[in-house]
Amino acid sequence: MLDKIMIINTGGTIGMVHSDENDPNSPLRPANDWHEITKEHPILNKYSTDYYQFNPLIDSSDMSPEIWKDIAKFISKNYEKYRGFVVLHGTDTMAFTASALSFMLKNLDKPVVLTGSQVPLQFPRSDALQNLITAIHIAGNELYGVKLIPEVCIFFRDTLLRGNRSRKIDATNYFGFSSPNYPAIAEVGADIRVIKDRILPPAKEKFYVDAVIDSEVVVLELFPGLKPSYLKSIFENNNIKGVILKTFGNGNAPTNKEFLDVLEYISSKGIIIVDITQCTRGFVKMGLYEASAKLTDVGVISGVDLTPEAAVTKLMYLLGKNLPIQEVKRLMQIDMCGEQTISQYDFITEEFKEIFSNSFEYELEIPTTLKKEDLIEAVVRIKNIDKRENYSDDLNISITIEGENSISTEQLKINNVINKLLPNNKKNFHAIFNHTIKSIIDKNSILKIKIQSNMKISMEAIKFSIFSEYLR
């Protein structure tokens, strides 16, 4: 039985000591080794740990993707030797590192616990000792009577948070971290209470590290008065591959032509634009409602409820895999390791672009993962109906969703048909189907979207989006 914990010290406040051990007012410097960190806290020596220290130690404001890769590779090299890992880290960028590691460390079946402190361990009122001891207990799991948590996580004060859901929210308070859109996975008091329904299951496949990162990414935050021309100029002569766009509310952005044209220009350069909210809590559901569909039409994709830290590191990770742009876009919207609550599956076809008809049928293959997920809603969008047989009458469109196997929609009470009238000045059709079409998805591998209209039309594209939540 593995009975040791590996402590990896990357730097940060927790491991700072006085440059003159006899002068409590002397400047702080990084500790030289584990002994120097623990000499005033002999209780730490009772734990069965090994210790590795990065050389040089890194101030967290100097953290970089290369160091993320070094941490991941070190864990990989020592993975079979230890029950779990504790990573000591500065607080300022801890959430970025935790998020990045969650994507790089594949098929985890051991805890990787990041922790740090607001005050150095040597100070009398420090929060460091409690953070460190509890992190060791969580990493050691069964050695200390704690349920196994096979995740990258952050422990701070009295709360264990999923790493890729965490944010630093306070620069001085001992309750320095929060998880805005996902509850704590363990609460610590007299006992360490793990909430088992909130943790990821241990992986069944073999652990490995996928230490790839491409940092050609920027984060931009919208504000009233932002000139689209300034935004465009940022992307004219550089190697930027991805943008995290922090928008208003639940993903709202200006819908004037100048702004949308700039976003379309950025997207046309092969740059991926991910929409996340500026709000601390909440979701972005791109394309669910017609207002946000204008953004999807110019190439923007949804960041759902990703934290800024998770959005940046997930995009860097996927870009580092050198995948086709459309595959990066697809994976950005699908939960990989608990980083987002809702997954969005998009299917787009332009095969009817040259067809002038009153009847269309689009078939698509249903991802097998969707049969394990809880369908929330689905959306069919017909983009740019640019020609009609008759402009004197309103356009009547009917959309039906079916599977290759016949199901009694009356018996199952499936809401699989939507009818709408489109006046002459409207070129886009937007229909929201509720969760009842889950019955069709579960019993079929092929989905059919049938479009009927009262006159012949031509269209630019059909987009079908499914919003789902993974059932644990």
TrEMBL record:
<dbReference type="InterPro" id="IPR020827">
    <property type="entry name" value="Asparaginase/glutaminase_AS1"/>
</dbReference>
<dbReference type="GO" id="GO:0009066">
    <property type="term" value="P:aspartate family amino acid metabolic process"/>
</dbReference>
<feature type="domain" description="Asparaginase/glutaminase C-terminal">
    <location>
        <begin position="217"/>
        <end position="332"/>
    </location>
</feature>
<dbReference type="Pfam" id="PF17763">
    <property type="entry name" value="Asparaginase_C"/>
</dbReference>
<feature type="binding site">
    <location>
        <begin position="91"/>
        <end position="92"/>
    </location>
    <ligand>
        <name>substrate</name>
    </ligand>
</feature>
<feature type="binding site">
    <location>
        <position position="60"/>
    </location>
    <ligand>
        <name>substrate</name>
    </ligand>
</feature>
<feature type="active site">
    <location>
        <position position="13"/>
    </location>
</feature>
<dbReference type="GO" id="GO:0004067">
    <property type="term" value="F:asparaginase activity"/>
</dbReference>
<dbReference type="InterPro" id="IPR027473">
    <property type="entry name" value="L-asparaginase_C"/>
</dbReference>
<dbReference type="InterPro" id="IPR036152">
    <property type="entry name" value="Asp/glu_Ase-like_sf"/>
</dbReference>
<dbReference type="InterPro" id="IPR040919">
    <property type="entry name" value="Asparaginase_C"/>
</dbReference>
<dbReference type="InterPro" id="IPR027475">
    <property type="entry name" value="Asparaginase/glutaminase_AS2"/>
</dbReference>
<feature type="active site" description="O-isoaspartyl threonine intermediate">
    <location>
        <position position="13"/>
    </location>
</feature>
<feature type="domain" description="L-asparaginase N-terminal">
    <location>
        <begin position="4"/>
        <end position="197"/>
    </location>
</feature>
<dbReference type="InterPro" id="IPR006033">
    <property type="entry name" value="AsnA_fam"/>
</dbReference>
<dbReference type="Pfam" id="PF00710">
    <property type="entry name" value="Asparaginase"/>
</dbReference>
<keyword id="KW-0378">Hydrolase</keyword>
<dbReference type="InterPro" id="IPR041725">
    <property type="entry name" value="L-asparaginase_I"/>
</dbReference>
<feature type="active site">
    <location>
        <position position="91"/>
    </location>
</feature>
<protein>
    <recommendedName>
        <fullName>asparaginase</fullName>
        <ecNumber>3.5.1.1</ecNumber>
    </recommendedName>
</protein>
<dbReference type="InterPro" id="IPR027474">
    <property type="entry name" value="L-asparaginase_N"/>
</dbReference>
<dbReference type="InterPro" id="IPR006034">
    <property type="entry name" value="Asparaginase/glutaminase-like"/>
</dbReference>
<comment type="similarity">
    <text>Belongs to the asparaginase 1 family.</text>
</comment>
<dbReference type="InterPro" id="IPR037152">
    <property type="entry name" value="L-asparaginase_N_sf"/>
</dbReference>
